[in-house]
Design a protein that fits this description.
Length: 162
Amino acid sequence: MLIDAYLARFGPSTFAYLLLLIEVTVDRSCRALNQSGQPCRQAPQTDGEFCFWHDPTNEKEVVEARRMGGLNRRREQTLATVYELEGLGTLDDILRAYELALMQNLALDNSVARNRAIADVATAAGRLYRDNEMARQVEQIKSVIEGRLPASQPRKRRWGLF
């Protein structure tokens, strides 16, 4: 529709077509206003002027999506409390996640998939221990070497080939 009118006016040149693409891309935003009165910056759906959240035909889906989002947030908080898991920010948190995965797999019926999952958890935990131990040893070596090195002095510049 818009493309055909533009091409009819300017002809099928590449330049005109590129200008059209830029114009369409820049102007494609939802026509609704958000809660603060600012224009919504979401891209509209392909067949309309509104984004998913503001399209009046999607009211039921939007209500359900918001409800599920709230349920998921509450569920995440509940699980974090029950399993005493605060995230994956520290080594202890990661080990706790591995421990939970291992316990959940041990509770399952014996199967090949269960045994593979247990082996994967054990392998990942072993790698984590190995990497942590290696990092600790590197830090120890660095502290010993830094204590033995003389204070750094500014290097003299040499002007020549060597």
